[in-house]
Design a protein that fits this description.
959 residues, alpha/beta, Rossmann fold, nine-stranded mixed beta sheet, seven-stranded mixed beta sheet, globular, 2-oxoglutarate dehydrogenase E1 component, thiamine pyrophosphate
Length: 959
């Protein structure tokens, strides 16, 4: 046996570990790799020997030398044991103690937070954690003055007595600021946190001016709440009392961010403390807030919203320059605003050419129950480091009132130790801090920002505080939490505690009382604002929405392109470089498209869509398209990304023709998103809400899957403009069509969009030809109107020859809200038409086929391509062409209680001529969107098409 191998095996044979030491071993080894002299001699000898031990696979590879260490100790952990014992000759006891010291350090770094002084109410008992007691490692009082090497720490000394070390560890990890970061997989991140915390022992060193600023912010936070509580008794405001340190924290964050070059901060938060942020952080005039309490605020919106949902923006001065602040509007669905904020931030980053997010900062403020309980947070975190959605890291702040929202107990509000434990899914560090120590809160915020700017990762600050009042001001918390609220009743308040502390430090006797009086006087005048708010600053990156505001609805837009431009664009988007080897199927798709571009074949859906994109980016309109299969298309119709079949690496060998349309074209971005609907759709809404000049599209894998994002559709897309005046021009592509694929792969729930349609709030279209998708996409950007566009896209029609269009329909015309009867024989004999069948979508082609089979030339078939706003003028004109028809039939694929029927019948009825009757042809009402058996689907489809030509029966409307 060689000497190194002998040392290695001897060490293994005499080493016993409990499972919790695995992180310690890995950290110790990383320290050895960085500086061998920083660890105990026995461990250094062991690791030296390890370098000469063959790898597990028998190779000489040394790429990851710490893996054998992890494997060896993991195996020992399985075998049991409670402590490390190193037996190397006469120094065995000293070696054991040296090792134990390193274990003790690792234990405090890993679980010291459990002993941190975090609860202002002092209700929580300190848990029993043996690993944090010196006796656990065999130390006695006699060892307290023994000096050990602690070279892998940042306490400023290479050696410390056990007593000194223990005090340093407890000050650093068990004070009013506790940290969780050791679960991070990146050693550099862990060492960064150790250095930052241990070098200061988690204590700030703020000067007198900074301390007075903190007290002033606490006074403002408490002062506003108390003023509102006495002036507007019983009105809901979701008070921040008990969590006032949050206002000091966000003020410190803004000032620190400005110093680091941040120029914009976008804040997302729900209700708790929102009014306080509006007045004391963003500078909303108190008199404007009071007007909302008194119901005298101007009502210039069709619907409006309650005061604690309102957003706001302002510019404030910092040492680093002006910083633009935006507080996002938010509905009662709490955390749903978070991905909206992230999308808004990404839009601002792209506009600035700021890919790392160094100039724009997202800040998300959570409640302790909401961050743990709302699934959209997990989706948003999962997006945070993906290429298409990263924002350079988010600072999360939790206002942790230890009770959740109404009557919750932590035992019932989550299944984790901390509400922030979901942050661990992306290795994000969490700083827990006692809200009664506002300086520690500011330090935590400062460190979180510094970490985010350094590593571009999310980070969380958990401000442990309390809630002085109920969930809202009409709630009586003593009903369910008598013990907690007895403690709260005895608490003097964070501002009072801090004012007394500063008085003891000699920073001004009575300073706190003076600030209280000054703030109250400002409130009485209704003139207090954040100092300094910049009223005349205008950023060059600000978005001008004025061209899109106050515009009357119109369907008209010049969306055709010249034939020469058509041919030029078609050639560019169908040319694949010789350096890229496409799949044979993709090669054929592009060859067919090239032929379509030359006019040799009719243009299919994929080519029509591509030409719309190409013409828009060539004209300077950026496009952002995301969804779970957007690059290829769920039904393989798009192939916007050509993958080189000979590529060797993930990040090589992809070619996107739409990014190579013109020399100075606008960007084209296509993203295969994570398997998420809610967060991704909200992200894209947020992006579009900040950029009216980019065509932002979210595509559902199947239209049904928009169900998972219904809250975004309800609370933002459908109602954002009438509630908050937020104009948005994003588009949703929702595959919709009944082809026998079952209940979850048929319907995009058209009826839900129709139910939400009012106040000209959005557009709902169901195009059925390639030229129609071309024109509707171009119309979305060319018109000076920004309304959400809901496109019911097809599945079978993507490749159907009947849905193809000649080039002339692209180089002329525009989007047709109603496609008129196209059978020349029927049109020629319009006076003989007895029945008009109106429909929307794929069923049109089934109806045309049935008419041909029956030879029913007395039946006209028209397509309603825009369901909302309903095209009354175009529809009425079509009915007048067939004025002799007595029967009208609405035919749809969907069940009667779904689809467009219940919405559209009154619109059709409004345009009917005297004596006409309206009937329905479609599936019977159903609790499910579609049947799951192919034969039953086929039978239903056959029957509904037959019914469209049969005698009217059942429910019939007469004009």
């Amino acid at each position: 046996m060689s000497e190194p191998a002998s040392i290695y095996q001897a060490f293994q044979a005499n080493t016993y570990l409990f499972g919790g030491n695995a992180p310690y071993v890995e950290e110790l080894y990383e320290s050895y790799l960085t500086n061998p002299g920083s660890i105990p001699d026995s461990w250094r000898e062991y690791f030296d020997a390890l370098q000469h031990v063959p790898a597990v696979d028998g190779s000489d590879a040394r790429d990851v030398p710490h893996q054998p260490v992890i494997d060896a100790f993991a195996e020992r952990a399985k075998q049991g044991g409670t402590q490390v014992v190193v037996a190397f000759g006469a120094d065995s006891d000293l070696g054991r103690k040296r090792t134990a010291v390193q274990q003790l350090i690792a234990a405090y770094r890993n679980v010291g937070v459990a002993w941190a002084d975090l609860d202002p109410l002092k209700r929580q008992e300190r848990p029993d954690i043996p690993e944090l007691e010196p006796s656990f490692y065999g130390f006695t009082d006699a060892d307290q003055e023994t000096v050990f090497n602690v070279g892998n720490t940042f306490f400023g000394k290479e050696s410390m007595s056990l007593r000194e070390l223990l005090n340093a560890l407890r000050e650093t990890y068990c004070g009013t600021l506790g940290a969780e970061f050791m679960y991070a997989s990146d050693q550099h991140h862990k060492r960064w946190w150790q250095q930052k915390l241990e070098s200061t022992r988690s204590k700030p060193a703020y000067d007198a001016a900074k301390k007075k600023r903190i007290l002033e912010r606490l006074t403002a936070a408490e002062g506003l709440e108390r003023f509102l509580h006495t002036k507007y008794v019983g009105q809901k405001r979701f008070s921040l009392e008990g969590g006032e340190s949050f206002i000091a924290a966000i003020d410190h964050l803004i000032q620190s961010a400005g110093q680091k070059g941040v120029q914009e901060i976008v804040i997302g938060m729900a209700h708790r403390g929102r009014l306080n942020v509006l007045v004391n952080t963003l500078g909303k005039m108190p008199k404007d807030l009071f007007a909302e309490f008194e119901h005298t605020a101007p009502e210039d919106l069709p619907a409006g919203d309650v005061k604690y949902h309102q957003g706001f923006s302002s510019d404030v001065s910092t040492v680093g320059g002006p910083v633009h602040l935006s507080l996002a509007f938010n509905p009662s669905h709490l955390e749903i605003v978070n991905p909206v904020v992230e999308g808004s931030v990404r839009s601002r980053m792209d506009r600035r050419g700021d890919p790392k997010g160094k100039q724009v900062l997202p800040v998300l403020v959570h409640g302790d129950a909401a961050i743990a309980g709302q699934g959209v947070n997990q989706e948003t975190l999962a997006l945070s480091e993906t290429r298409g959605f990263t924002t350079g890291g988010t600072v999360h702040i939790v206002i942790n009132n230890q009770i959740g929202f109404t009557t919750s107990d932590p035992r019932d509000s989550r299944s984790t130790t901390y509400s922030t434990d979901i942050m661990k899914m992306i290795d994000s560090p969490v700083l827990h801090v006692n809200g009664d120590d506002p300086e520690a809160v500011c330090l935590a915020i400062e460190l979180a920002l510094e970490y985010r700017m350094e590593f571009s990762k999310d980070v969380a600050v958990d401000i442990v505080c309390y809630r002085k009042l109920g969930h809202n001001e009409q709630d009586t918390p003593m009903l369910t939490q008598p013990l907690m609220y007895k403690k709260i009743a005895q608490h003097p308040g964070t501002r009072k505690l801090y004012a007394d502390k500063l008085a003891v430090q000699g920073l001004g006797e009575g300073l706190g009382d003076e600030m209280v009086k000054a703030y109250r006087a400002a409130m009485d005048d209704g003139k207090h604002t954040v100092d300094p708010v910049l009223t005349d600053f205008k950023s060059k990156y600000a978005v001008d929405w004025s061209p899109f505001l106050g515009k009357a609805w119109t369907d008209a837009a010049d969306t055709a392109i010249p034939l020469t431009e058509w041919k030029r664009l078609a050639e560019r988007i169908t040319t694949i470089p010789d350096s890229v080897t496409p799949h044979t199927l993709v090669k054929k798709v592009y060859a067919d498209r090239a032929a379509m571009g030359r006019g040799e074949h009719p243009v299919d859906w994929g080519m029509g869509e591509h030409m719309a994109f190409a013409s828009l980016v060539a004209s300077g309109y950026p496009i952002r398209l995301s969804g779970e299969d957007s690059g290829r298309g769920t039904f393989s119709h798009r192939h916007a990304v050509v993958h080189d079949q000979k590529r060797e690496k993930w990040d090589e060998g992809s070619y996107i023709p739409l990014q190579n349309v013109a020399e100075n074209q606008a960007p084209f971005t296509v993203i295969d998103s994570i398997l998420s609907e809610e967060a991704v759709l909200a992200f894209e809404y947020g992006y579009a809400s900040n950029d009216p000049n980019t065509l932002v599209i979210w595509e559902a894998q199947f239209g049904d899957f928009a169900n998972g994002a219904q809250v975004v559709i309800d609370q933002f897309i459908a109602s954002g403009e009438v509630k908050w005046g937020r104009v948005n021009g994003m588009a949703l592509m929702l595959p919709h069509g009944y082809e026998g694929q079952g209940p979850e792969h048929s319907s995009a729930r058209l009826e839900r969009f129709m139910q939400l349609a009012a106040d000209t709030n959005m557009q709902v279209v169901q195009p059925t030809t390639a030229s129609q998708i071309f024109h509707v996409l171009r119309r979305q950007m060319i018109r000076p109107i920004r309304k959400p566009l809901i496109i019911m896209t097809p599945k079978s029609l993507l490749r159907a020859k009947d849905a193809s269009s000649p080039i002339s329909e692209f180089t002329g015309g525009g989007f047709q809200t109603v496609l008129t009867e196209r059978d020349e024989a029927v049109v020629k004999n319009a006076a003989k038409v007895k029945r008009v069948i109106a429909c929307s979508g794929k069923v049109y082609y089934d109806l045309v086929k049935k008419r041909e089979e029956k030879g029913a030339q007395d039946v006209a078939i028209i397509r309603v391509e825009q369901l909302y706003p309903f095209p009354h003028k175009a529809f009425a004109a079509e009915l007048k062409r067939f004025s002799k028809a007595t029967d009208l039939v609405w035919c749809q694929d969907e069940p009667q209680n779904q689809g467009a029927w219940f919405f559209i019948q009154h619109n059709i009825h409004e345009n009917m001529l005297a004596g006409q009757k309206l009937g329905y042809a479609g599936r019977a009402a159903s609790a499910s969107p579609a049947v799951g058996y192919a034969h039953l689907h086929a039978e239903q489809q056959k029957n509904l098409v037959e019914a469209a030509f049969a005698k009217l029966k059942g429910f019939v409307l007469t004009k």
